[in-house]
């Protein structure tokens, strides 16, 4: 009996080598995945496959090499590989939500599936479908495809979304808070440019972000470009004084340092600036559309200890799932003010609208690009 070990890059290549050298009746004794090359314990080596095969005689515990109707070693291994593939497919199916069996039927079924895939909670999706069915009444039986169903569902979404984007005439400063990296300073600059350059409003900027390196300088650059005044406040009392010094301005925009929502000291500091202080502030919480759903809820809950007036959702251009916009609206009842769609100042920002949310969830518009401008 001849026994030999074959080494190759892939299993298919190894089996081909076995067959070419030892014939189709060779018996596979063992297989092993290895790594060859540099690195401790082969961690950074090249992946290899080792196949040990036998030819001639009988191998204990293995199929006979005689082609007497029994499977050859190659066939046995192929069957084992197929079994493994089936097992992996079964595991994948069990982890993947089964949208073929939904609690919704008729013209609403594919749209319900669309909402679930977008990240809308199943409970809320069903509630919206039921409301939409009531809107249709006896017309549901006449649905051609899903057009009427989608139209009714879009109306239901529009009805539940609250928006409020006008900063003019509020008579109080506007501050932007939120986690690090969501685009607070850039959003402030976009709004400053919009109100000062496009609408001709008298705008002033204040920053309390004295923690982040370069934060003050960054905002000063925007202020210089827009030719509007800017001030730095390092304490709550200082902020109050700076706000009063700009009481002749139409709009005062306040930038803040980003912080982890789990950092209680940072939230406490923001409370000192915006709750115990003697100024009334229109507080906008920024959150990114790319944030994981569970983290997004945590952010809104933790920053919700502040008197949040409105939400701004940033980075719509970087996300593909927008169901969280509906989940947030249903859970917190806080209006959206703006959506941001890129880094360009001042173009990549838009006033939040219920229709925009419905389109993001249902994909109503044929043009899937992001609009620019308020």
Topology:
Layout: E1 2-8, H1 11-22, E2 27-36, E3 46-55, H2 73-95, H3 109-118, H4 122-136, H5 147-160, E4 174-177, H6 184-198, E5 203-207, H7 215-226, E6 230-232, H8 236-245, E7 251-255, H9 264-274, E8 282-288, H10 293-303, E9 308-314, H11 323-332, E10 336-340, E11 349-351, H12 354-362
Helix pairs in contact: 4-5, 5-12, 6-7
CATH architecture of the largest domain: 3-Layer(aba) Sandwich
Strand neighbour order, sheet with most strands: 6-5-7-4-8-9-10-11
Number of domains: 3
- Can you give the mean pLDDT? 81
Top CATH class of the largest domain: Alpha Beta
The CATH topology of the largest domain, please?
Rossmann fold
Distance between the termini: 80 Å
Q: Could you say which structural class the secondary elements and strand pairing correspond to?
A: alpha/beta
Tell me roughly what share of residues is in helical segments. Answer: 40-55%
CATH superfamily of the largest domain: P-loop containing nucleotide triphosphate hydrolases
Indicate the overall shape.
Answer: elongated
Secondary structure tally, helices: 12
Beta percentage is 15-25%
Give the low-confidence spans.
38-44, 59-69, 367-372
Radius of gyration: 31 Å
Series of secondary-structure elements, N-terminal to C-terminal: EHEEHHHHEHEHEHEHEHEHEEH
